[in-house]
Amino acid sequence: MDRIAALRAFVQVVDEEGFASAARAMGMSRSGVNRLVVALEDALGTQLLNRTTRVVSPTSTGLSFHARAVRILELLDEAESETRAEGTEATGTLRISGPMTFGAARLGPLVADFMKAHPALRVVLDLNDRVVDIVEEGYDLAVRIGELQEDANLVDFRICEAPRVLSAAPAFLAAHGVPTEPADLRGLACLDYAPRPGSGTWRLFRGEEEVRVRPSVILSSNNGEVLRDAAVAGLGIIVLPTFIVGDDLKAGRLVPVLPDWRPPALTLCVVYPPARHLTAKIRLFTEFAIARFAEDPP
Predict the structure, then answer these.
(1) Looking at the whole model, is its pTM more than 0.85?
(2) Residue-level pLDDT at 177
């Protein structure tokens, strides 16, 4: 049995929901497609398809096997394409995980431009503020922006830094007073980004001097835009990256707080499993991101 041909036949039958249409799509006879699928079931020792006179559908085992078979065939096609193109073209499917706010504002446009440069590529872009398990959840890479955490199971390529600032609405400061030193944050309403490592404690630097302060947090959220909107509404002081609050600072809706003190900058990076570090689509995407953000850092 040609295992690859059998896998392609099985996937086509599931996708086309029948042997006849699968045979037409593959340019084969119906009996030929059926023989390949039967041989695959015999080799696996299990039934992959439910067959009736009107419809063909995968069994529960077949449905799970179909997802794996699709991935195997994608990797095979990708390897062949990369070999033929000598690694100069991104092909196949690129599965990317990214953070919500940065993903919508900056990663989405980058992906669109990358796809224009590599029209043979398909992309699945999943935006979520939780830290996904890249291997377990089947992503090729993740774009992350945060206080970088070392992970021996992943390769990280650091692209650039994204500065953060303390800021608040002018009306809030007029009503509650302007802090003059970090300790003042303990007596003022503050808004905190919940998933941040060490959430609840703010680290601030003035040159080589570092202080840690536990602000009086009245609102915490895992979404930077929610916190920005709350700060603009005059609810309190925030620590957020400039790619979220930059426009509000320029427009005067927010103003810097404790300008001599800086929170640690966030790091923008691409992370991926070590076993995938040579695939053309990951390498080319990383190079594209470096070029983009070197010209226009977040």
Answers:
(1) no
(2) 93
